[in-house]
Amino acid sequence: MIDENDQLTDGSFVKAHMGCINRFREGKCKSFYDSKRNEGTEGFFKCPCGMTAFLFHQENGSIAFFTCLRNEKYYDKKRERSLLSSLIPSCNPVLSNDECLAFVDNARKALSIEKKEKELTDYYKTFVHEIRSLNGTNKSLIDLLLQENFREEAGEISDDQYKEIKEKLKTVFFSSFIISQKLSLKHIEESYFDRKKATSIVVYKKFDKMAKIYSSSKQHVFINGNSLKEIYTDTYFENIPLLLIDNAVKYSYRHRDVNITFNEFGSTLKVEIESFSPFCDCKEISEITKKGYRGKNASCIAEGSGIGLYLVQLLCERYGIEMKIESVSPSSIDGIQYGYFKVTLLFK
Fold this sequence. Notes:
CATH class of one domain: Alpha Beta
CATH architecture of one domain: 2-Layer Sandwich
Strand order of the largest sheet: 5-7-8-10-9
Number of helices: 11
Largest sheet: 5 strands, mixed
Order of helices and strands: HHEEEHHHHEHEEHEEHHHEE
Structural class: alpha+beta
Mean pLDDT: 83
C-alpha cells in the first residue's frame, strides 16, 4: 500500500515485489502516482511496471493506493518481467477482476477497522490516565483518614462512629487498590526499574501498613518480629505486600488469621506470609506464578484472574528479591483440599 504520505508498506496478504520496493526508493514511479493522485479517479489501473494498482479515497479524504496486485484485466506479464526482473518473481497470484474487487473491498474495511481501533486505543489511554489520577487522589485522602491521629483532629466522635467510619474507609480503600491493580497490570509489565529514580524504603513499614489496612474484626493480619532493613526501589514495590496479603486474606479458610513473620540473618531479611488456604501440589506450585494460572482448589472457592502471584514474581525478579512458595499438610474440608500456604521473600 502507498499511503497519503507516499510511504510504501508491505501488506499482510499482498507482499510488495522487491523490484517495486527498489524502484520506489529510487523515486522512479513517483511522477506516475502523483499524476494519478491529481486525477483522483477511484479504480484499477496498470502501473508503469505492468502490475495492477488501485486508487481509493480514505475516510479522512486523502488518496492512497493498493499496489503490487495482479488483476488479469490490468496486468502485463512481459512488462513486469522485463522491468522487475524475471529472477525475482511476484509472490502474488493473478486474480480475476471480481476477485480483486472483493479483495480491495475487504482491505478497505480492514483499514477502517484499524483506524477506529487506534482511535479507541487513544481514547482508552486518556481515559485510564484520568481514572488513575483520580484514584490516586482518593487513595491519598483515604490513607490520611486512616491514620491514628484522624480521630483526634476530627473532634467528638464516639467509638462506634469511629469504627463504622474506619470500616467504610477500608472498603473504599480496597476498591481503590483493586482499580489500581487492574489499571497498572499492563504498565507494570512494560515498565522497568530505573535505579537512578529509586528511593529508600523500610520493608517492614510497607508490610505493616498493608497489614493494618487488611485487618478487620472478622480477620486479623498479624506481624511477628521487626526490621529496619532498607532497600532502594520504586513506587511499584508497594504492590508486593498488597498482592501477597490480599491473596492470603482472600483465600484463607473461613477468615482465619494471616501471619507475617520478619527475621534478619546478618544483612539478609526473610519475610514469610502464611495462611491456611487451598492446597497446591508440586505441579501447581511450579505453575502458580504464570500469568492467568489458578490452582484447582482455589478455583473452587473464589473467582480470580490469576495475576496476583504472577505480578509479585515479576516485581521480585525486577528488584532482585528471592521468592519461594510452599503448600504443605493438606487436609480435606467440605470436599476441598486446604493446607498451610507460605510465601517466603529474601531481601539481601
